[in-house]
Design goal:
alpha/beta; nine-stranded mixed beta sheet; two-stranded antiparallel sheet; 40% helix; disordered C terminus
Length: 503
Amino acid sequence: MRNSGGYDPILSLPIRPANLFFHAIGLQTTLPCSNPDYSTLRLLNGSQVRTNIANNPNTIVSVVANDQLFAAQRGNTRLLTELYGTNVFRITNNEIMDILNSQRIYTSPLLPLPVYQALKKAMIMDNIQSLSMNNHEFGSYTLRSVLEEAVLEGNISPTHIRQLLTNINTYPEHYGLTNPQKDLLFASTFFQLGAMVVQTEKFHILIDTNGRILAREPQAQDDILLINLCGIKRGNSLTTAYTDYDQTIMKNTFMTALIAAQHSRKGILVIPAVGMGVWHGHPLRYWSALLDAIANGPDTFTAIFVNPNHEWCENCTGQEFGGLLNQYKTRLRDSPSSPQTQQKLRNLEKICNLRNTDGTGTDIVHFAYYLARTCADIGVALVNASGPNCTLGNIKGEKINHISYGNATEENFYSISLSGICYEYMTRIHRDAENTFHITHNGTLEHAIAPTLTEQEHNRLVRLSEQIPSYLLVSYDGLGNALGPALSNASGSTSSASASLVT
């Protein structure tokens, strides 16, 4: 178990706790394998499973290590109970539906809701779920380049996105933009837009501190608010400079996350390093954006716990957060006293640095779980350092199916929890205007006037999400070898379409 909140041992396994949950609710998914090209989690009958859950609210779902499942899938002689124990995690369908219905979307002050909603619709019409497609980083294109370049790498042809960008370019005021704001947005990459979107949902952990299935009974007071946000992905080049505009984006992103937590009445925040792992973001830039947001943000939090552990960065020691926090406090103490200055200092005084004296950090997931169990009256929110495919695209867990992917927060969080069901087509968030929000520049909340998608457009999203990708079918033999023997489907038969599924 890694101190940054990651679970490398879990990601090395062919069946994770989340797979046991999927199996328990009858959800067919693609399975973990060693080939990174097949690393995306796909839910292939989610709409049917959602209907079953809704129609049977009192049914209790039992998540348990299934030795027969492991042997059938892998031909493995090792018992799954040796890995995950014999405890049973019990939850009702009604609680699972609460998770699906809990999802909310918040756009930062830099991204007006009309732009976000129109873009999501255009992405679905162009069959774009991921910002990394056909081995090309579509997300690294600016909006202006997508509008003006006739042919994109990988023969990507985002017809509906181009038409939308043409409309925004011609009538920016219809989308809540002034001309200068439009120009700045068009100079942004799709990856940068992904950092302007924050998603939240209820989070339930499946394992205890020993990596065993957690013993749980229905209606336990243990849910956490998961706040999905991301740093600035640089595309295929890690040498691209982090700009002042990126700093502005991240300050607004963190502010959006704080307001989202306040909106859900959570008094305790737990925050890991964001953008400083596989994307090689510099700690001083990201931590200063976070501290700026906290100092100027809501004053309603009881405590804010920060785990400053991050991946290695040149000329960094891991103590940057603590040093920067002290600098901020000293600067405010030395400034002329005013109500605003005193409030900023009080906000920063609520921060607790979880870095230990030996240079390690705290297991933030179980720490958040402990707080949720002991401080249910205050409420706990946990930040997930995710990616733009989660916030702007329609991919949960990113490369969760890549065995031994590494110490990545999003993949680890989703492999040990129930949150893998929170794909947008399963939550139906885009049919729910009341749970789609924009944070204004003065920090107030505005919810959408209308749903992002019509029912017909939502059904298109369902079909897009549940289809087996063509590259899985084309590479079936290789995928089959990686995954081992197929499980039978619900009718007891086996087919090429179900060979890569847990049923």
